[in-house]
Amino acid sequence: MTDKGRKRPLLAVVLAFIFPGLGHFYLRKWVRGLLWLGLLFMLSVVFVVTGAIDPVTQLSIEAISSSYQSRPTEVTIGSVVITTLNVVDAYWVAVNENQAQEVEAGTTCPNCGKELDEDIDFCHWCTTQLEPVEADQQ
């Protein structure tokens, strides 16, 4: 099988760790990515204390730092849980998508794992002689 359509699970994990939803966007799972992003946003909206930032000085570094330090512990724990579950889900989706593509691709060489032509009885990549496939096994 060629690597053309394969997704890299490690890259999906890194992107999901950077920000929830990015790994799923890389995997082109748009709705799933938006759900993870929305979940993190809802956690922030529901639990963040309103009024922690003064509207006049909300763009200063001190105001942002004090708002970050004054957030409840539940928000920090929730963010870690959401990010961890998002990373695991991005990895799981990438691996399952790659396995589904391998199944669709057809037969692969038992020695090197690359895709085989159906009309020859050896692997043209590593020259391994293949056992003939019986008609009832197909």
**Percent of residues in β-strands:** under 5%
DSSP helix fraction: 40-55%
Largest sheet: none
SS summary, helix count: 5
How many domains in all? 2
Rg from C-alpha positions?
Answer: 24 Å
Structural class: mainly alpha
Please tell me what the overall shape is: rod-shaped
Number of strands: 0
So what's the oligomer here? single chain
The low-confidence parts are none
Compute the separation of the termini in Å.
19 Å
The helix-strand sequence is HHHHH
Chain-averaged pLDDT: 79
Plain-language structure description:
The chain has 138 residues and is mainly alpha-helical. It has 2 domains: 9-105, no CATH class; 107-138, no CATH class. The chain has 5 helices and no strands. The protein has helices at residues 9-18, 22-26, 30-47, 61-69, 73-105. The two termini are 19 Å apart. The relative contact order is 0.14.
Structural descriptors:
138 residues, mainly alpha, 5 helices
Summarize the structure.
With 138 residues, this protein is an all-alpha fold. 54% of the residues lie in helices and 0% in strands.
Task: List the topology elements.
Elements: H1 9-18, H2 22-26, H3 30-47, H4 61-69, H5 73-105
Helix pairs in contact: 1-5, 3-5
